[in-house]
Fold these 4 entries.
Entry 1:
Amino acid sequence: MTKTTQQTQSDTLRTLVIGGTGKTGRRVAEKLTALGRPVRIGSRSGEPAFDWNEPATWGPALEGVDRAYVTYYPDLAFPGAAEQVGAFARTAVAAGVRRLVLLSGRGEEAAQRSEDALKESGADWTVVRAAWFNQNFDESFFLEPVLAGEIALPTGDAVEPFVDAEDIADVVVAALTDDRHIGRTYELSGPRLLGFADVAAELSKATGREISYVQVSSEAYRAVLREQGLPEDFVELFALILDGRNAHVVDGVEEVLGRKPRDFADFAREAAGRGVWDV
């Protein structure tokens, strides 16, 4: 087979982006499409549909796919995740998928079991361990609290080097398209540590209104999660990954992309300019 033929086949095969409507998946899909690489969105509303809890949907979603970006909801650290990720990875390899890029979390020992399960599939793999996303404050968990002017969490004085989803997506696209990243694990963070009081101050500055951080008990926050229909296991996960183990910045973004990661203040100004926090 000639190099031209190999290139043509590679160009016609699709990349499956699991969670392709989510914070990082949407951006990965957009960036791959801009590069002229065909994409299939892996979601329950996709065509064909993909559902982590319905293994029968995995095969159809993998048809004609040679690489995949793997994100898992609600979190790789949750019970049963490693088994599902491992089973999916084996199914993908059996279907002809050559490369798997897994989104993981920093400092999550349970998530590392999912990483190992994916690696054992025999695929070419890359693991991307990310800090908390900036976009949690404008697209996800914390949007409503920001709109209400009060971020209430059981996180105390913990600090986190929040990372931007655009930076994560750029790293993932590099891992999907460049052989130099096969077999590598990258840890991604933003350029500085922020406590949640610091986050509230940055959001206040960007929006021009007062947004405060309020420390609450784990039980009070568990009740909030229950009310919102979100997994209560997030309380334990917060306690685990905000115990100081991740209280340092890492250079994965610069290592892969050759540039500094985006700062939270820049994210906040841009999001405020879009009117996402207007009330």
Entry 2:
Amino acid sequence: MSTPDAAASARRTPASHAVPVHKVLNNNVVIAIDESGRERVLMGRGLAFGLKPDDVLDPAKVEKTFILDNGADGERERRLLADVPYPIVEAATRAVDEAERRLGRDLGRRFTIAVIDHVAYVIERLDKGMRITTASMPELRVLHPHEFGAAEHMATSIATSLERELPAEEAVFLTMHLLNATRDEPNGTAALLFRRVQHVVEVVEQSLGVRLDVDGPDYARFILHVQFLLQRLVSRTMLASGDTSFFEFAKHSYPRSYEIAEHVKAYVHGATGSDLTDEELLYLIVHVERLRAQVAPGADPDPVVT
């Protein structure tokens, strides 16, 4: 199995000498065997036109190269690259290259394959008059601004290359793919953390009976606080203090925000099986009170704890 860095390097390095064809997948994609006996997928517009096994292809026509895994994963990737229209493959790989430059890191073969698969799925659904919608997820822009910005540019680049209008929420889907590719965590961990942040926001919004101002600074502070709170919970480094005076003060001074914080605590316990400490609850009350003051002009935000 190749490493992500090795795969990314190979993907950007065209062949420098004549390459015999092992298998032709379509007019734009062939399989070749390298010096180490590994299967390489070589791609380029019209690269394989008129070629058959054991013919030698023109290395100048090779635009992208992938080193595939063995087994079922490699076979699935081969089928995908053979079946997806080449303009989609070309647009997706170009957008990935741009994202790598913006983020200053290799994203790996798996990410590129995931983007090709996703874009092909979106285009297929759009051609059938179907659209998969998702929430705008403004939390992503706050929590992961670099990845979200790169995803926005990817969506624009793909739409421009294909001369298609893509749904606005494509930036959300691509951000989630980026998070899974750039976090040194088990696959899906970043998405799980993000969903829990979203659920906490929903608990607060439902308790307040409003939609929060996602562009406000208090909202941004709240989102970041919730993210760090959940990360501390996972790493078992929650805030704790022997002095409960501030907590008791906030609890009695801001009963509505305390009640909402208790709702969040109940959600967190149900989702993770862990209880928030009084110290964590205190800072949650502070942030909720700030948000409550934002939507209820008569309320004063907590002036004591920051």
Entry 3:
Amino acid sequence: MSLSPSLDGPRTTRASTPPGTSPLHRDPAEPDEITRIVPRRRPGRWLSAGVALLALAMAVNSVVRNERFQWGVVGRYFTTPAVLDGLLLTLWLTAAVMVLGFLLGTALAVMRLSANPVLNALSWGYIWIFRATPLLVQLLFWFNIGALYPTLGLGIPFGPEFLTFKTVNLFGPTLTALIGLTLHEAAYAAEVVRGGILSVDAGQTEAAASLGLSRWRVLRRVVVPQAMRSIVPTAGNMLIGTLKGTSIISVLAVQDLLYSVQLVYNRTYQIIPLLMVATLWYVLVTTVLSVAQFFVERHYARGAARELPPTPLERLRHRVTAVSVRVAASRRRGEPGRESPRGDGGEERST
């Protein structure tokens, strides 16, 4: 038996030709040689996977069996009305900030790409200011806007005012958080939208313009659908970041998820289990948003990829099918009375 080694791929073996016989003059009555491809063994891959699973099991064991987490308290407060009310406010604030932020950010991106130097400069200055200032500073500034502008009015510049109102009566904690987060989000959304628009090949817009399409129709039917493939992944990260970033408004005494939990543990002194309640809710909502982001990306991948990426259920089904096929094949090879794949007079090939 002779071996045919391979450096990168699987190894194949063939039955040796009897001495004194040319392979070109083999007896036609002899059975055809069967070639079996044996996968290359990779012990390092299985060893690293075993070490990683061992480390994960140790970490999970240390969390589950640690009595100081007080999992009973976590389960008792997980669905209390105070926590659920804070969760609803967090979700509402996240959705409102993302919608308003991307609407304003899209307008800023269009201004930034405009040939008008005034609009371009104003958009650049807005993005520069709000990206250069920490979010907490912006929230505190808007929360104390009454100290800078006690009253606000509508009227003619340097002329009479038609409508005036006190700032203290207008800007409450929730509205202040909404305004601060939206203005901050718009600066980053503008750059995301601008990058997505610039990622579209210029030949696409030139071809659409040559067909006589208006600029608005080119933007809506040609540029935006292709730009979404670049916008959606970053926008998904921004959505998850905004969900977690809303916890910073607890400094303004807005009863979001984190502040609601803080109110409870300030009364019961059960800090760790109540923080675990907030953590589990953030993890749960983030997981749902990540799954939704996957399907949105898969939707906009149509036309750009020959085959859409498989869903997690499809990947699991393919792996289960592959394992069942391997098990069935190994059982068939191990049944008595069945011949192993060998050449005529040769031995079964191995690695």
Entry 4:
Amino acid sequence: MAIKRQKDVWTNEINDIIRGACGGFLFGIPLLYTMEVWWIGSLAKPQLMMMAIALMFIVVYLLNQIEGFRKRRYSWLAHQAAMDTVEAIAIGLACSTFVLLLLRELTPETSLKESLGKIIFESVPFAIGVALANQLLGDTRNSNAEGQEPDQANRITNKKGDELNATFADLSATLIGATVIAFNIAPTDEIAMLAAAASPPWELAMIATSLLISYGIVFQAGFSDQQKRRRQKGIFQRPSSETIMSYLVSLLAGAFMLWFFQKLTFSDPWTMWLDHTLMLGLPATIGGAAGRLAI
């Protein structure tokens, strides 16, 4: 019994961290594609970095008092909120560092001061997103199917229509969510800058990261109606196939936005299309995952 209880504690902790990280990606990924933030971070003085950390702690602490990223809240305990705040900031720092490395904005040649500045300033929206994880799309991991028998859940799913309609709804939601995010990033010069610095191994890492984050947001983080999504019928409704298909749709939306804003033309080589689309694919995929959760 004690071993099972300890295992449940670790499982809940891992799920909470995944939920917080996914909330950070939902909230913070657009700012990671903003070169002005890179420049501010690279030029920031130590005093400004400390001020940013202090302000981040205050904001995240207040948000943790309201909701936070854990399933069970003890908001009346100040020390619990403080511990959650430290953990949320740590998750934000880790996620922003990982993405900056993936985007090649942090390299072995980058100075320590510049690296710290970029990480700290980019981690602010990530940490806020971690604290807002439950408020962004709600934590319904244990409440989706409670009080329902399996046949009742199946009847609810069947009422949504046949497999074709369910698949069409998912693809449409993915396309809308991906387009909304890509629309804000595609016109900027950051995509061309990032694509120029990307090599094939880093592009493969970008693909893997996009798929992993998309899967985590929809099927692992415990956001809106996660269990119902696992039971939903459709042509690509298995978690793995749905994630891959949604990623392809998000890439299509990103490519269209790049063409729409004349960042790519049909006279450009296919390698240029591929590089730019993969760079935009990460935020577009996150937007597509959020779109699927919204339906």
